[in-house]
Amino acid sequence: MLLTRNVADLKKGERAVIKSFSDRDMSLKLLEMGCLPGCEVRLDAIAPFGDPICVRVGGCYCLSLRRNEAASIVVE
């Protein structure tokens, strides 16, 4: 059985590559923010209560996302 992972599943400091999006409506917003398929992401920080999280996109900038937004980014 193949398990899909998303950005919300990453541990602090872990890297992954964006594969696709699970939410069509959210995907447009994420694409506009630079979350493109094939781009590397790294989980940099997690807020004290777990939401939001800070994701470094392409090694260039940090993006603050809610966990439900991060969960729609499928990674490999």
From TrEMBL:
Q: Which domain of life is it from?
A: Bacteria
Q: Where in the sequence is the signal peptide annotated? A: none
Coiled coil location: none
Extract the GO molecular function terms from the UniProt entry: transition metal ion binding
User: What keywords tag this UniProt record?
Assistant: Iron
Claim: Iron is one of the keywords in the record = yes
Please state every residue range assigned to the domain named Ferrous iron transporter FeoA-like.
Answer: 5-76
Q: Which InterPro entries match?
A: Fe-transptr_FeoA-like, FeoA, FeoA_core_dom, Transcriptional_repressor_C
Q: What is this protein called?
A: Iron transporter
Protein's gene: feoA
